[in-house]
Amino acid sequence: MPLHLSPSIGIAVFPDDGDNPSTLIKNADAAMYLAKEKGCNNYQFYTPVLNARTLDRLKLEYDLRLALEQGQFELHYQPQIIAGSKKLYGAEALVRWRHPERGLVPPNHFIPLAEEIGLIIPLGAWVIAEAARQVNVWHKAGLADLVVSVNISALQFHQSGFLAEVQELLARAGTEPSSLELELTESMLMSDMELSIQVLQAFRDQGYRIAIDDFGTGFSCLNYLRRLPANILKIDQSFVRDMQSDSASLAIVTSIIRLAESLGMDTIAEGVETADEYALLADQGCRLMQGYHFSKPLPPAQFEAWVQQWIGSWHKVSSLPLTVILRQGFVRFFAK
Ligand code: C2E
Ligand code: MG
Ligand code: MG
Known about the structure:
The chain has 2 domains: 8-47, no CATH class; 68-334, TIM Barrel, CATH 3.20.20. It is built from 14 helices and 11 strands. The strands form 2 sheets. An 8-stranded mixed barrel has the order 3-4-6-7-8-9-10-11, surrounded by 4 helices. Helix 4 (120-140) packs parallel to helix 6. Strand 4 (87-99) and strand 5 (103-105) form a beta hairpin. By secondary structure, it is of the alpha/beta class.
């Protein structure tokens, strides 16, 4: 059987590019990443211009592409609770990269690069497919009304045919659009507000939920906000963090809650870390909350355990097996 190879060769020359084996290999490696970057069947000589930063970036870029192929990404889920009731509204899916050497890498370390090199398109599609698969599994386990929210990046949102792609991914998972919430930031919508409103309306018409993430950190035009077909404003965690020490932050939090109410939307406060923050937000009429005070983002199995404990601590039924609790508990606890 013929075997087709497409080698990428990096060349470092003794003694100019290193006078010992390890430096030579390191520099040849750097040149090899550049060769890969420029397409396969390619060779590159090491040059000092390939400085440390370029190398780190090239390596990260190469690793990132490999990670998608090799299934190194995973989703963690952070519970979103209904204030004052111990009911659960849903969970936000947050991507992590389980790097073979570096361990669990948080999204801020790779999403910007994934966006820059366009990898966010296939990665984002994987996130939607995986979240849709997982929420369907939880629905079948009895979490009938669970909503999973996914973060959408500007590049994904602005590609033509995005709605059709999401529809296809959900259909393949057998998941209803009403189980998926798309999180978009104000700033990405504002680059072309008229088009954004049209696209969001098309999603809403199909039954998807829309949340505006990090709300208050961009410069929303209130006139557009009025027409934005969103269900939820997510109060950015920076306001939540400062609201007890800074009266302006508290005023912003309160105004967002009132604004959402008047526009017929809900609010989720992000980054709720303490019981005092929880109490203050609940007092201001914020209906939904998310943050370390309740739980950090968790892998699926731990999320299930958290739910069991959350319901158990409320109903004192923790001796029941998880699935029984889910079946009995969730019908009640997920209902608004
Ligand atoms: P985000 O969507 O605003 O997500 C909230 C971030 O706040 C998460 O960080 C979460 O772990 C963290 N967080 C939650 N509760 C607390 C709290 O009480 N205190 C503090 N200090 N932090 C809290 P994470 O998971 O590192 O994600 C960071 C950002 O990366 C996200 O911000 C989102 O913009 C982006 N991201 C995550 N997953 C995806 C994804 O699948 N696709 C895209 N495009 N972006 C993603
Ligand atoms: Mg988010
Ligand atoms: Mg946010």
